[in-house]
Design goal:
The chain is of the alpha+beta class and about 180 residues long. The chain has one domain. Helices cover about 30% and strands about 25% of the residues. The protein has three helices and seven strands, in the order H-E-H-E-E-E-E-H-E-E. The chain has a five-stranded mixed sheet. A two-stranded antiparallel sheet has the order 6-7. Strand 3 and strand 4 form a beta hairpin. The termini are far apart.
Length: about 180
Amino acid sequence: MQVAMKAQQQLTVVFLMISSQLVIACGHPPSSRLCVTDINVDIGNFDSAETGARAGVRALSQEIHRCAEAKEYSISWNYPGNEQERGWRALKYIRKDQVSGIIGYEYDPSSGTREPTYLVDDKAVHEVAKEGGTLNDFAKYQKKQSDTHQGFKALGQTGAFASMGSMSIPRRQKKLPET
C-alpha cells in the first residue's frame, strides 16, 4: 500500500513539474484561453498602423482556426499616434452566420467599425492572412449582397453600420403618421 502511495506521489510531482514548465514556456496554461462568444486579443505595439494591420489579419486567421464558434473577434494593436490618430486600432470580424461576417476597422474602443467594411467568409480571412494583406485586400473576396440575407444592420455597440465596400445599407426609417 505504501509503495502505491509513494508511486502516486512521484507521478503527481512529475505532472506538476511538466505543467509548470509548460506554463513558463508558453506564458499561460494551454487551456487558459477558452473559446467564448467574443474573442478580444491585443497583439501589442507596432512601428506603424499598416504593420499592425498585417499582423492583425494573421492573428484573426489564427483565432478563427482556434475558436471557430465565436461570434465576434476583435484584434487590437498600438502604433505611434499623431495629431489625427490616437495610435490604437482593432480589426473586427462580426459573424452574420456560421462561416461569414462583416470585417472592418474600429478606431476607438467600443466605437463600432467605420467604412470601408466588407462582407466576407472565413476562407477569405485565411487567404488574406496568407497573402500578408490588410483590410483593403478583402475587397476582392467580398460576397455580393444577394449571397446572404438582406438587411445587415448595426455593427458594434454604438450605431456603426454595415456596408458593402462603398455602398452602405441604410437603416430603416419610421414613417411619421400623416396629419
